[in-house]
Amino acid sequence: MTKDAFRGATGGRIDRSRPVTFTFNGRTYRGYQGDTLASALLANGVHLVGRSFKYHRPRGILSAGSEESNALIQLERGNRTEPNLRATQIEIHEGLAASSQNAWPSVETDVGSINNVLSKVFVAGFYYKTFMHPQSFWMKVYEPVIRRAAGLGKAPAEPDPDFYDKMHVHSDVLIVGSGPAGLMAALAAARTGARVILADEQNEFGGSLLGTREMIDGRPAADWVAAAVEELRAFPEVRLLPRTTVTGYYDHNYLILAERRTDHLPRGSAPKISRQRLWKVRAKQVVLATGSHERPLVFADNDRPGIMLAGAVRTYVNRFAALPGRRAVVLTNNDSAYAAALDMNDAGIEIAAIVDLRGHAGGPLAAEAKRRGFRVLTNTAITATHGSKRVTGVDVMMMNGPGEDVIGAPTRIDCDLVAMSGGWNPAVHLFSQSTGKLRYDDELSCFVPGVSVQAERSAGSCKGTFDLPACLAEGAATGAQAALAAGHGDGVAPAVPAATSVAPQPLRPLWIVPTTTPVGHGKAKHFVDFQNDVSAADVLLASREGYQSVEHLKRYTTTGMGTDQGKTSNVNALAILAKSLASPIPQVGTTTFRPPYTPTTYGVLAGRDVGELADAARVTPMHSWHVAHGAAFEDVGQWKRPWYFPKGDAQGTEDMHAAVRRECRAVRNGVGVLDASTLGKIDIQGPDAAQLLNRVYTNAFLKLDIGKCRYGVMCKEDGMVMDDGVTTRLGPNHFLMTTTTGNAAKVLEWLEDYIQTEWPDLRVFLTSVTEHWATASIAGPKAREVVAELAPDLDLSPEAFPYMSYREAVVAGVPARIFRISFTGELSYEINVPAQHGLHLWENIMRAGEKHGITPYGTETMHVLRAEKGYIIVGQETDATVTPQDLGMGWVVSKQKADFIGKRSYTRKDTARSDRKQLVGLLTDDPNEVLPEGTQLTAIADGHAPVPMLGHVTSSYFSDTLGRSIALALVSDGFNRMGQTIFAPLGGGKTVSCAVTKPVFYDPEGVRLHG
Amino acid sequence: MADTLLRRGGAERFTQAVAALSPAAGPRLAELTPPGQINLRGRPSDPKFVRTVGGVLGCVLPLSANTVTSAADVTVLWLGPDEWLLVTPPGVETALVARLREALGDLHAAVTDVTGNRTRLRLSGPNARETLMKGCALDLHPASFKPGQCAQTLLARSGIILHQIDDTPTYDVYPRRSFSEYTWMWLSDAMAEYQR
Amino acid sequence: MLLINCPWCGPRDETEFGYGGEAHRTRPADPSGTSDIEWAEFLFMRTNPKGAHRERWVHSHGCRRWFNVERHTVTNQITRVYPMGGQVGGTEIATPAAEQAIEAKEPKQGSRS
């Protein structure tokens, strides 16, 4: 174990009594509870943590927060491995195992760094330019090689052992960020009694105050933070969510928050707690206090390990007592780096020089720096950096007036740390996601929130307010206003604690720091996007090549397209573009900010919707019987329906074909039973019930007798078939409609649409009873004998209980409704009992049917039997472009009715065409050939592509009854093709010829049905 | 007849292990014997309808959205501006349907026995609210959703009727019967975090 | 995720609702009396505005009522919710609580217009 030699002896928010051992790239290090991986590595003197995406250049830690673009980490191994995590956000814990990405064989000796030597090839757009030809190489050669060489982390190959969940919550005020503005806003809102959520992505509240040494109310800011959090904790209506990233801001103040609940603990140590939780928050008001991100400066070779953001260095020395170096050069265009330099100096870091791009360094911070004797070089640039895996020194030169060139000879300054500051970008990501309009502030040289669209307000540095007293005051006012807008308090800001104001001097927006050669010439690179290796030269090249829209620039150069989404790079890139176009920055604009704010695991987005909870499986009241009897199940919508019931014996278990043939034979020759409970059922009551049916079905319903059933087809206004089913008249003003399984809810909603909006005069009520009734369909020549045993009091003679009629009776001791309707072409009874007795009914049917050899059958057998009869299935024979006439069902369309839904469309030119695709039967010349459903059909056996298509096969089975294959198909002008031969090209040179027939293959007279 | 038969619940394949879901701490979950359920439709603007129904039930028909009234043998849940669910002890529903139909006579109304449509799961105890919040987007905060209120809404991937019974809090969750197993699985998974 | 204020049940998440397309299209009283062009206009043509759009929604997982919503198609802001049969520019229901003002309110039925 190496000693953490770069750790200050005292200070910081780490717990020195709790040392933590972890590994990085296989080596063991020591840190403390409270460290991030980044702070612990820096305290151990480790700066080289990764290789860049394209050139494989050595890279170190840039930042101290979620904006990190360089220090991407692969965490853990095996099924818990996770790529692309930011070392600056990972809280270390005992046993943590981390490694670098994108380096092979190791981050120290990376073979891929040859790309750096070849970098002239890898300019902007090089993928597009280089890998164009030959086209066939793309999939086989280029893409796999590029992916391997340019990959980020590795996704796990095994299932995730952890679980994730979600929580819906409503709040009056959601506050994002817990820095000075956010905390003050939370206090102001909480004191009104409002329901407040305070979320912060860090492990503790305080935001920027954790990394500075400000004083608030005369005591260290951290003490004020602790007191504020303690006060907030006491409010019952306040929910505090640390380690929670507000990752998406959607319509109507709906935000999603990703909370990391156990990532800071050893893996697997809290098995009952979800690893991460997605909070879905509906907030009346939102306060954005998301802080700001420091901008890097774009200077020659600004990417070496040891070159860091000044504010980050300040955070490391103050919050973690970690020393990122011994001797630092500070490069800045603004005042904030002076504050960093002072804190660094206090922590024991020698300040070799402050290199200020501005012509004059004024103000109290610069005065203090000078008082301490720091070497302050104004109007000066860093023109080169030295070192490879760690910066060892810089060259500095004076600049000319406009800052476009350098003068004189370079001076070398040795150092092991460069702290840079190019100013600050307000973190406007969530504001922008909320569809608020940004405004460019010329004085601050950054984008700030402009016009709000949703119920949100920004406070603090995310609004461009960088001064601490102003942040506190703005937070207090905003919190009080938000609470008032949500109906709490009086809107008056509470008293604000005292803090020292530092009137900042203006910054100098110098977007490219000049060096001895023009940008893009010579070896040096001015990096803009570290993660994607996009340099200023790439941006300028793209601009010259015509990629002058910021959105085009982004996609062509890939700037801002990394896992950091350009948090540190975007403004520099578009400012350089603006400069090259000689346009003002607001005119160039920004790219669109989209969720998520930081990378989010798929796990937390999926939540518990995985495995058996991935979707709701609907089961019938008889489901347990089907399971116990070995049914294979088919998914029909969300329903689990028995598909077939394979029989097993010593020889093995039947396959589907054997089972279906057996089940078909049973129904045609004996008796079978189907669980038909899933059919949609709508109870229709009211004096105008018959009128409604008459308007929505294509055929007539006004004169249906009580106790009779009628098949009906429903179409939409365009005349296309929507659903079908049997409707029964239970009483003068009472009907029961059945719908297809899949359309039950849709049909009810559609009917409600008409009676609530078009025909409010109709006195009719609709009630779904789909789930109230369990339905068993007993079918086959012996069906009557089985039903007779179950319902001894019921007269089942064909005269007393004919086909398409309905009776009520006690069946197996339960009051039941019995419908003599058939979807198989056989004598058939559909018995309905209340669902709580469905299993009882089924068990009794099986018992009563035993001596008749009753055979349970599934949906596959049902499909074969109905296809033999030419009965359509909506959604299989139809697809919203098929009329009843196309199905050969003109008989179901009334000629007498003045109006019904769909009628008008049958006289439209296209609908009235005689050569539309029409439903026909197909018999293959080879009786054993079963065509795949969906097979396209042609008029000629062979021909050169493209061969015109006549239509397609909609249903296709092997019919045990007929001893041959049968198929239904929609074929152009099909009714006129009866007896003709058409062709089914199956690919691979195989073409099947088949005869066009009528679509009824079995018992066309319906003798069996009426028996 | 039917009332002497066992009334099957909707989650019986899972409720065998019901003891495991009555832990020392955290919420408890059980499937209650499916109650009688009657769907009632009618026009609330018709005083005769409202009066007649109230007379038969022995309690006023709830006319405020998402509220519940009750009498000795019936609980009345508001489902929509002209729709209610009457929940009765098991077996009472058949006679009540008949009494309502008779009393309503020619009034434009609809009385439908829907006893099989839904099952009833009871979730009660500490963190019952948080358990529901994992899958229900309603504002269940005590200031917004109280005992005596009901709602038709979504729980995870299934529609439910939710009825808060008391401040424990206790909730009755009515899934469609076919969704009973899913809802049971989902609830028992969501509450595991709070169990000891 | 829109928050839609059901005129009966109060504000609920968009996932509880179904979308019914443009509002205030009335089915011709006598479809057989329409020309092909008029019928096609009714069947297929919609205004698709950029801005305020009046559209129909149904509270599928709640009270099963159809109602009208005026929504801005760019910002998604909902400016008005009103029952079927309500006039264009009718009762504005900005933020009613679930319990508020709905008491004994009858579904005001009327045509899509």
UniProtKB/TrEMBL annotation, chain A:
Taxonomic superkingdom: Bacteria
Occurrences of domain SoxA A3 (ranges): 524-608
MF terms (GO), sorted A to Z: sarcosine oxidase activity
InterPro entries recorded: 2Fe-2S-bd_N (IPR042204), BFD-like_2Fe2S-bd_dom_sf (IPR041854), FAD/NAD-bd_sf (IPR036188), FAD/NAD-binding_dom (IPR023753), GcvT/YgfZ/DmdA (IPR028896), GcvT/YgfZ_C (IPR029043), GcvT_C (IPR013977), GCVT_N (IPR006222)
Gene3D superfamilies named among the record's database cross-references: 2Fe-2S iron-sulphur cluster binding domain, sarcosine oxidase, alpha subunit, N-terminal domain, BFD-like [2Fe-2S]-binding domain, FAD/NAD(P)-binding domain, Probable tRNA modification gtpase trme, domain 1
Occurrences of domain FAD/NAD(P)-binding (ranges): 172-439
Gene Ontology annotations of biological process type: tetrahydrofolate metabolic process
UniProt xrefs under SUPFAM superfamilies: Aminomethyltransferase beta-barrel domain, FAD/NAD(P)-binding domain, Folate-binding domain
Ranges where the Aminomethyltransferase C-terminal domain occurs: 917-1003
Residues covered by the GCVT N-terminal domain: 622-897
Keywords: Oxidoreductase
Family: Belongs to the GcvT family.
NCBIfam families, per database record: soxA
Name assigned to this protein: Sarcosine oxidase subunit alpha
From TrEMBL, chain B:
InterPro entries registered for this protein in UniProt: SoxG, TrmE/GcvT-like
Organism of this sequence: Skermanella stibiiresistens SB22
Span of the signal peptide: none
Annotated protein name in UniProt: Sarcosine oxidase subunit gamma
From TrEMBL, chain C:
Classification lineage: Bacteria, Pseudomonadati, Pseudomonadota, Alphaproteobacteria, Rhodospirillales
Protein's organism: Skermanella stibiiresistens SB22
Protein origin, superkingdom: Bacteria
GO BP term (any one): tetrahydrofolate metabolic process
UniProt cross-references to Gene3D superfamilies, sorted A to Z: Folate-binding superfamily
GO function terms (MF aspect): sarcosine oxidase activity
Protein known as: Sarcosine oxidase subunit delta
Pfam families assigned: SoxD
